[in-house]
Amino acid sequence: MRKFLASLLSIASVTASAAGLQIIKVDEQHIQMGLAEGQVGEYYEIKPAIEIVLDASGYHFPPVPGQDSNEPNAIQLIIDNEHQFTAYWEPGVTNYTLNNSTLAPRFNDFSGFNAGDQFVIAIGVLVTDHEKEEQVFKVQWAGMGSVQP
């Protein structure tokens, strides 16, 4: 019986996800960095979801000083300043599904985009400073949004 219920929930999740797949397009209109003082980019508004697609096709990332390539290597997701996740960027890939299986948690597992959540998505280069024994995230693009009820 447990296997049946688990299968049923799995099918329901996939069906709901496929029907309401939401796409966040990485673009200049939504960028939240490098703007003149007092200016802000547009905010994303999404519906509650267990996953979203991040589409960076057509966006040209600025170079990062000290890096050989301007290609990002990481995506950071922060929800309500309390939950932080990382997804790794693969060279040449521009579409990413952000969900529980692709987001590595810093503290707690990813439980979806829930009504009322505020989020920040940042794309950039995650580098390790071996002398300081810490990781530094150099942001190339950042956008903000909220999850509607």
From TrEMBL:
Record keywords: Signal
Q: Which domain of life, per UniProt?
A: Bacteria
Q: Where is the signal peptide?
A: 1-18
Q: What is this protein called?
A: DUF2141 domain-containing protein
